[in-house]
Amino acid sequence: MKKLFALLLTAAVLQACSQNDNTTEGQETTETVAEANAYGASFEEQNVLSAGQLQQAVSGNDSIQATVAAEIVESCQSKGCWMDVKLEDGSTMKVTFRDYGFFLPVEDLSGKTAVFTGIAKHEVISVDDQRHFAEDAGKTAEEIAAITEPREELRFVADGVKLK
């Protein structure tokens, strides 16, 4: 009796393991593709601001919660821990990720569009932090040494990012 039970249990396990899901090899569902391009906390793309609209919305405020769409100019080539996005006036805004909770691919993301949600605020960036970011971006030693003064800029701490 024990042998029959063990044989039936083994057959049931083998049958369950050989079950095929409904997707075929090499074919991805829309949900899988969407998840592959999303990093950090999930969010709905509602009330999305352009970079120019964000600049207007944050002026006169210490910080604002927003969802923004912008073109990536540069990204961290070391760990994928930040990206610079293009602002309407031609400058850039550094986007970092809350508590280093997630990272983007280290491939060159310039030219891609990112939609991200989180908090925008004006900050003074120390010389050390500017040099660190320049090093991550692969700048030369001369370019890094040329950074000698703190700089105030618009920054964004993202909770989630979707690459388009």
From TrEMBL:
Protein's name according to its UniProt entry: DUF4920 domain-containing protein
The keyword Signal is annotated on this UniProt entry: yes
InterPro entries linked to this entry: DUF4920 (IPR032577)
Key words, A-Z: Signal
Matching Pfam families: DUF4920
Organism: Pontibacter amylolyticus
Signal peptide extent: 1-18
